[in-house]
Amino acid sequence: MNILIVDDHPLIVDSYVALLSAIDSNKNSNFHLAYNCKEAYDKLNVLKASATSLDIAFIDVSLPPYEEMNLRSGDEIGSLVQKQFPNCSIIIISMHSEPVWVNRIVKTLNPIGFISKNDINYRSFPSIMEAILKKETFYTKSIIEAQKEFVVKNIHLDEHDSKMVQLIADGIKTKDLVNYIPLSLSTIEKRKANLKRQLIFEGGSDADLIECVKKMGLLRSLIDTKP
């Protein structure tokens, strides 16, 4: 595999290399290292020009900028990776876990991995890599809690929305929700579509909605939320 690691602290970069190299599946991996936005930009261009695939990118958000190319943070490098290497698994790493900030990163990048440095140690990396290699989403505890806090504070629910979520989770079909909620079918469908926009930011199935709610630990919170 080809693994990109971008962090402005050389000691941290070396630590990531050591930890990742200790995992059997990474024994023969090639590591491409960068310490600021310019170096990351240059590395990506070299890889692209040589038709080298990029499999995984670990990117710290707080990076020295590359003003000439309007690259000022790791999430902008992440967007560049997505454009040039759409099959690359992106893992965002940061000290920050403020809800609004986390929501912005998730909404713009939707990384497969999102890690707060405060949540990890050398024992965490094998499980992180195992999830990433299986193309499973891996968000650490602080990031999940930040998402949950943002959604609970900003989502606009009333008792009908909350009941709708629970009923869908219980397997009730949309057409039958009118038997449980005193609203027309068209109104219920509009509410459900709006809820999907707020939670998963784009269209998706009912299963996607419930999976998102359960993954974020929001199902009980949503039911308990009052307008």
Q: How does this model look, in words?
A:
With about 230 residues, the chain is of the alpha/beta class. Helices cover about 50% and strands about 10% of the residues. The chain has helices at about 10-20, 35-50, 75-85, 100-110, 125-135, 140-155, 160-170, 185-200, 205-215, 220-225; strands at about 1-5, 30-35, 55-60, 90-95, 115, 140. The protein has a six-stranded parallel sheet with strand order 2-1-3-4-5-6, with helices on both faces. It is elongated, with a radius of gyration of 20 Å.
Features of this protein?
227 residues, alpha/beta, six-stranded parallel beta sheet, 6 strands, elongated
Summed up, what is this model?
With 227 residues, the protein is an alpha/beta fold.
The strands making up the biggest β-sheet line up spatially as: 2-1-3-4-5-6
Largest sheet: 6 strands, parallel
Number of helices: 10
Counted beta strands: 6
Beta-strand portion reads 5-15%
Q: Give the termini distance in whole angstroms.
A: 49 Å
Secondary structural class: alpha/beta
**Radius of gyration (Å):** 20 Å
How would the global form be characterised?
elongated
Average pLDDT metric: 87
The SSE order reads EHEHEHEHEHEHHHHH
Percentage of helical residues? 40-55%
Uncertain stretches: none
